[in-house]
Design brief:
Layout (H helix, E strand, L loop, with lengths): L7 E6 L5 H13 L3 E6 L9 H8 L17 H8 L2 E7 L1 H9 L5 H7 L4 E6 L3 H5 L1 H12 L3 E2 L3 E4 L5 E5 L3 H11 L9 E6 L4 E4 L2 E3 L6 H12 L3 E6 L11 E4 L3 H11 L5 E4 L6 E3 L18 E3 L3 H6 L6 E8 L3 H11 L4 E6 H4 L4 E8 L2 E9 H16 L9
Parallel strand pairs: 1-2, 1-3, 3-4, 4-5, 8-11, 8-13, 11-12, 13-16, 16-17
Antiparallel strand pairs: 6-7, 9-10, 14-15, 17-18, 18-19
The structure holds cytidine-5'-triphosphate.
């Protein structure tokens, strides 16, 4: 069972060399738990046989308007009615032109015209064909008709030329499909997220830091944008690119992070503290490089202010969510943190199983008890966490300043 709004997808394959990539696309979609019904144009069958897609999707492949399975009644209506969305990948220049004009001279174009669901196209063509004013006019018209367009990408083409027009890689199409179809549970909400490590200077060349990669915080930022939120991401130094649309505020130290959070917290609906903030920093960073002089060196550390607890204590606090990365007594320590910091929700995990990894698991703790999110890629966990927050927000009155 997948947790996305697309359960049944009609995948239309049109004639182009990128049709071979559609085989991998079907495999990845099925792996996501999506039921895939393949419909091919006559030209597509010249590149890959329907049998390939039948084997991968586990369903008969439709190609013809006239000899469709009669058990389907009127196939051109039924097939599109059963689907939550239609994805055309690859979409040839010719098929795009047909969509623009509402042509219905084969099964796939007829299904598109008779649809009452979302239509998405992933163009694939020679760069000259893509750049042709006729294609560009057609693409504009598709945008105007609210048809989503994934890609194309730029790069080497099967014909030996280089340029814009390559179909997106199957992984990217699946990622965009899942992003595109996320329910907009956080539409209009403003979310501030802290992510990554902080770096506490000892002297100009040395510092205290930790192994946080920022992956969880950045995944939450991406998932929040997909769900319609406006995201501010206060991030320590990481090797990641912020999702497009994020208001990124890069910081270095815990003190910088506190300052950035405090000056951006007003008007936020949700604050999610994912950052691995250094609990301590050197009492006084040395202006000059500390010289080696003795067998041992003692650095006096001072406690950093707890950013999450500070924000949660405000009279106008947004809905505050903490993370608890523990090495033992997970639930006990996490619940203690939730109580101490007065949080409606905390996400707990085992530090060594999560830090730097692309996938992990979480246990969400709130007043109702514990809610496990089993092992999954961090983006899927982020979606699960945000769905939980959205549900809680429906019942959680925002604190008003008195
Ligand atoms: N946190 C914060 N500011 C700090 C320390 C922690 O905002 N100075 C936030 C983290 O982003 C996380 C939560 O508090 O959401 C828990 O952080 P963690 O370091 O696990 O807990 P601590 O309260 O610091 O407790 P300990 O280090 O003793 O486990």
């Amino acid at each position: 069972m997948n947790d996305y709004s697309i359960k049944k997808l009609l995948l239309g394959i049109t004639g182009g060399i990128a049709a071979y990539k559609a085989a991998e696309l079907v495999r990845l979609l099925v792996k996501q738990g999506i039921e895939v019904q393949v419909v091919m144009t006559e030209a597509a069958t010249q590149f890959v046989t329907p049998l390939t897609f039948q084997a991968l999707s586990g369903k008969p492949v439709y190609t013809d308007l006239w000899v469709s399975d009669s058990s389907k009644g009127m196939a051109h209506i039924d097939l599109s009615r059963e689907a939550d969305a239609i994805l055309i990948a690859p979409a040839s220049a010719d098929f795009i032109a047909k969509l623009v004009h509402g042509a219905a001279d084969d099964l796939l174009s007829t299904l598109c015209l008779a649809r009452d669901c979302k239509l998405i196209v992933a163009p694939a063509m020679n760069q000259q064909m893509w750049n042709n004013p006729a294609t560009q006019r057609n693409i504009k018209q598709l945008h105007h008709d609210s048809i989503a367009i994934f890609g194309p990408a730029s790069g080497d083409q099967a014909c030996g030329e280089t340029g814009m027009g390559r179909m997106l890689e199957p992984e990217e199409i699946v990622a965009q499909l899942l992003a595109h179809t996320q329910p907009k549970l956080l539409a209009g909400k403003r979310i501030l997220i802290t992510a990554g490590p902080t770096i506490e200077a000892i002297d100009p060349v040395r510092a205290i830091t930790n192994h946080s990669s920022g992956k969880m915080g950045y995944s939450i930022a991406r998932a929040a944008i997909e769900m319609g939120a406006k995201v501010t991401l206060v991030s320590g130094p990481v090797a990641l690119t912020a999702p497009s649309g994020t208001n990124l505020i890069p910081v270095i130290s815990a003190a910088d992070m506190l300052e950035a959070v405090e000056s951006n917290i007003e008007g936020q609906d949700i604050f999610i503290a994912v950052a691995a903030v250094a609990d301590y920093s050197p009492q006084q960073a040395s202006m000059h490089k500390v010289k080696k002089s003795a067998a041992a060196l003692t650095i006096e550390l001072k406690l950093n202010q707890d950013i999450l607890a500070t924000i949660a204590a405000r009279p106008d606090a947004p809905f505050c969510v903490g993370f608890a990365a523990e090495s033992e007594h997970l639930l006990q320590h996490a619940e203690q943190k939730r109580q101490n910091k007065k949080l409606p929700l905390i996400a707990a995990n085992i530090a060594t199983e999560a830090m730097g990894k692309d996938a992990s698991s979480l246990i969400l703790l709130d007043d109702e008890g514990s809610h496990p999110l089993p092992q999954a890629p961090k983006l899927a966990l982020a979606r699960g966490l945000l769905q939980h927050i959205a549900a809680m927000l429906d019942h959680h009155p925002k604190k008003e300043s008195s």
